[in-house]
Amino acid sequence: xxxxxxxxxxxxxxxxxxxxxLEGHPICIVKDSAGEVFAIGDTCTHGNISxxxxxxxxxTVECWAHGSRxxxxxxxxxxxxxxxxxxxxxxxxxxxxxxxDPTVTVPTSEKEN
Length: 113
What we know:
Blueprint: E1 4-8, E2 18-22, E3 25-31, E4 37-41, E5 55-57, E6 60-62, E7 69-71, E8 88-89, E9 91-94, E10 97-100, H1 108-111
Antiparallel strand pairs: 1-10, 2-3, 3-4, 4-8, 5-6, 6-7, 9-10
Protein name: Non-heme iron oxygenase ferredoxin subunit
Pfam family, one: Rieske
Organism: Microbacterium horticulturae
């Protein structure tokens, strides 16, 4: 397990995705309107588009290029044209630090809880 500091909570703006790269993994970090912090793979599975350039609404992020929305909780696409999920990473908040292990994705059973 390789937990790394991705950013500070204070660096995150509500509903404004932030792109970070940890150990070669592009990750989209989002603080939603409820203040919860999520981390998902940054690359849309429909095209090679950065999700951190997209739009956040509730607990989803929308790819700006073709409109696919992804659940921040499960990584599942909620509409076409994307049909493959993006990875979801566990987030730990330690003080102001957002910590993520970019080598381990959250299993589906944990995503659905």
